[in-house]
Design a protein that fits this description.
The structure is a single chain. The chain is of the alpha/beta class. Helices cover 62% and strands 12% of the residues. It has a 5-stranded parallel beta sheet, sandwiched between helices. The protein starts with a helix and ends with a helix. The protein binds adenosine-5'-triphosphate and ligand L45E5XJ5. The site of adenosine-5'-triphosphate has 15 residues, from helix 2, helix 7 and helix 9. Keywords: Kinase, Transferase.
């Protein structure tokens, strides 16, 4: 075999190998979707709601739901419900939450997938997710969903600490030791995700240190133009 023939043969074999790999990866992604009973063809619009612990995400999500027709999915609430349900992952999740650590993405994503699938709405506020780069990349590759934008509640630590210590909802992670751990995780793992979306022009930053009503005025200004566009 001449050198040129050898080169052609190599190129042919390599292109077959590359096509094979591509097909394998496509199949793998489809299988993961199926395994999570994910909406394979449900078209949804998603907004990620991010911010430090106690920045007021849940409070503002309730206002957005009431005014703009979204469904609120809190990753933390779904994890707490999973513990209560007696799931085999319950003890692991409970230990992670007590330590302020981030639960493995596959667990949280399955819960989010199920909640999206079971809900009749097609507009979701996903609160407290993605919490780190692994959450972000896994969600995108498993669901193929990209957020419309990220609503970021920016609040100083002292104010968040004051709010969490006064929340009084019996949460096991609202104690000073766990709160400090959660702040550390937010700074080290969650802020980089917000920076990632910021570099793509997707972050809508809200000054969350103000009173609830004033924060919601700023939130409305983010949502209202989108609603006006649909109505026009
Ligand atoms: N703008 C605000 N001013 C004062 N208190 C607030 C404000 N927003 C929320 N709060 C109060 O602060 C506490 C934390 O708020 P919320 O639960 O909405 O925060 P969060 O960001 O969802 O917290 P987490 O991430 O821990 O779930 C609650 O007791 C809430 O009533
Ligand atoms: N994507 C997530 C979201 C939450 N957690 C764990 O739940 C705790 C409470 O979350 P809140 O949003 O309700 O404050 C959080 O500290 C994590 O332990 C998670 O692992 N992954």
């Amino acid at each position: 075999m001449g050198l040129q023939q050898l080169h052609c043969e190599f190129r042919y074999r390599f292109s077959r190998f590359a096509a094979c790999m591509q097909q394998h990866r496509r199949q793998e992604r489809a299988e993961i979707r199926g395994a999570g009973s994910l909406p394979t063809n449900k078209k949804v619009s998603v907004i990620f709601v991010l911010g430090g612990p106690g920045s007021g995400k849940g409070t503002q999500c309730a206002n957005i739901v009431e005014n703009f027709g979204y469904t609120h999915l809190s990753a933390g609430d779904l994890l707490r419900a999973e513990i209560k349900s007696g799931s085999e992952n319950g003890t692991m999740i409970s230990n992670m939450i007590k330590e302020g650590k981030i639960v493995p993405s596959e667990v949280t994503i399955k819960l989010l997938q199920r909640a999206i699938q079971e809900n009749g709405n097609d507009k979701f506020l996903i609160d407290g997710f993605p919490r780190n780069e692994e959450n972000r990349a896994a969600f995108e590759s498993v669901t193929g969903i990209e957020p419309e934008f990220v609503l970021f509640f920016d609040c100083p630590e002292e104010e968040m600490e004051r709010r969490l210590l006064g929340r009084n909802q019996g949460r096991e992670d609202d104690n000073i030791d766990t709160i400090r751990k959660r702040f550390k995780v937010f700074l080290e793992s969650s802020l980089p995700v917000i920076e990632y979306y910021n570099s793509k022009g997707k972050v809508r930053k809200i000054d969350a240190a103000k009173p609830v009503g004033e924060v919601f005025e700023a939130v409305k200004a983010v949502f209202a133009p989108a609603v006006e566009k649909v109505a026009a």
